[in-house]
Specification:
Glutaredoxin; 2 domains; two-stranded antiparallel sheet; 7 helices; 5% strand
Length: 167
C-alpha cells in the first residue's frame, strides 16, 4: 500500500468546526455506525477549527524516506481520530514522528525548512489532476478505482479480477 497526500480543504479554504451541523450529522449517521461495524475506535476530533494537513503530509514524505511511512501515517491517524491531537501543529507532529521511531530533531528540521514542500505539492497535484481524486479513501487497484469505504470482499474481488488469484 502506498499512502498519498490529499487535502479535502486546502489552505486558504476554511476548515470545518467539529461542533458544526455537517460534521455532527456525518459522524452520527455514517462514521460512527461504520466504525462500530468494523470494530474501529474512532471519535470526531475536537480540534476547532480542524487543522490544515499540509505539514502532516510533508512529514509523511520524510517518514517514507526514512522507512517509516506506514508507522508515521498510522500514528498521525490515531493521534487525530482517537486522541483529537492538532496534526497541524509542528510540535505535535514531531512528537508523533518520534513515537513512530523517527529522529525528532531531524524531522522537525525538515518541517521547519519545508524540505518536503515541493514533493508534497507535486503529489497533491498528481492526486487531483492525474488520478482525479475528489474524496477519500480512494483505492486504485490495477486499472480500477474504488471511491469511498469498501467492504473487504469488494477489494478482494477487484484484486482477483485485476491480478488473478495470486493478486
Amino acid at each position: 500500500m502506498i499512502w498519498m497526500p490529499f487535502e479535502l480543504r486546502p489552505y486558504p479554504a476554511p476548515t470545518l468546526r467539529p461542533d458544526g451541523g455537517y460534521l455532527q450529522s456525518a459522524w452520527a449517521n455514517s462514521v460512527y455506525p461504520l466504525a462500530a461495524r468494523m470494530g474501529v475506535e474512532i471519535r470526531l476530533p475536537q480540534v476547532s477549527p480542524q487543522p490544515y494537513t499540509r505539514l502532516a503530509h510533508e512529514g509523511l514524505e520524510f517518514a517514507k524516506d526514512h522507512g517509516a511511512g506506514g508507522a508515521y501515517n498510522d500514528a498521525v491517524m490515531r493521534g487525530f481520530f482517537q486522541r483529537s491531537e492538532d496534526i497541524g501543529d509542528p510540535d505535535v507532529l514531531t512528537r508523533i514522528a518520534a513515537g513512530a521511531g523517527l529522529d525528532a530533531e531531524t524531522f522537525r528540521t525538515a518541517l521547519d525548512r519545508r524540505k518536503y514542500a515541493e514533493r508534497t505539492e507535486a503529489l497533491l497535484r498528481q492526486a487531483v489532476e492525474d488520478i482525479g481524486v475528489t474524496g477519500v479513501p480512494l483505492f486504485v487497484i490495477g486499472t480500477r478505482r474504488l471511491s469511498g469505504v469498501q467492504p473487504r470482499k469488494a477489494l478482494e474481488a477487484v484484486m482477483t479480477a485485476e491480478f488473478g488469484e495470486a493478486g
